[in-house]
Design brief:
184 residues; alpha+beta; DNA polymerase, domain 1; 2 domains; 5 strands; binds FE2/S2 (inorganic) cluster
Amino acid sequence: MGEVLAVRGSNPSMLGKAESALEVNLMSDTISFRLNDKPVRLNVDANRVLLWILRTDLGLTGAKFGCGEGHCGACTVLVDNVAVRSCLFTAKDVRNKEVVTIEGLAKDGQLHPLQKAFVEHDAMQCGFCTPGMILSAYSLLKATPHPSREQILQGMEEILCRCGAHTRIIDAVQAAAAEMKGAQ
Ligand code: FES
Ligand code: FES
């Protein structure tokens, strides 16, 4: 506060800049969480949208911006193994949590069985929905390791695919579930 008063008093033309600097300073917070198996510590507005932290601040562009309102699922990531819409999550929502994006799903250079199944079943066209689809399927299989086709359909129906690849997506999730046999 003292610094801002000094700037304001010394140069009125700097007032706008001083006020926005104060705002950023007051709103910024230190947020720690794990991202794709690595610790992350950010000085950031606690209300900054997680999708922008991932894409803009950290350069992880796998999560996509679709609607920005929680409807399409293109921005889906895992938070503590549950699929969430990162356009509706903020920095403070992931404090001390485990975040996984599509970039973190492969291990030791090996694609996750879901990723392999999406490739083998040609379950993508433009690929825009694919990260969200795969992470939603991961979350679904974590909760329901041996889903029926109907359960897969229900679990995935709120993720939109603009290319109409849903049938192949369901096939891929079913194949991955069979291969994984309840493993993650
Ligand atoms: S961009 Fe988040 S749900 Fe559409
Ligand atoms: S593959 Fe294009 S939106 Fe799903």
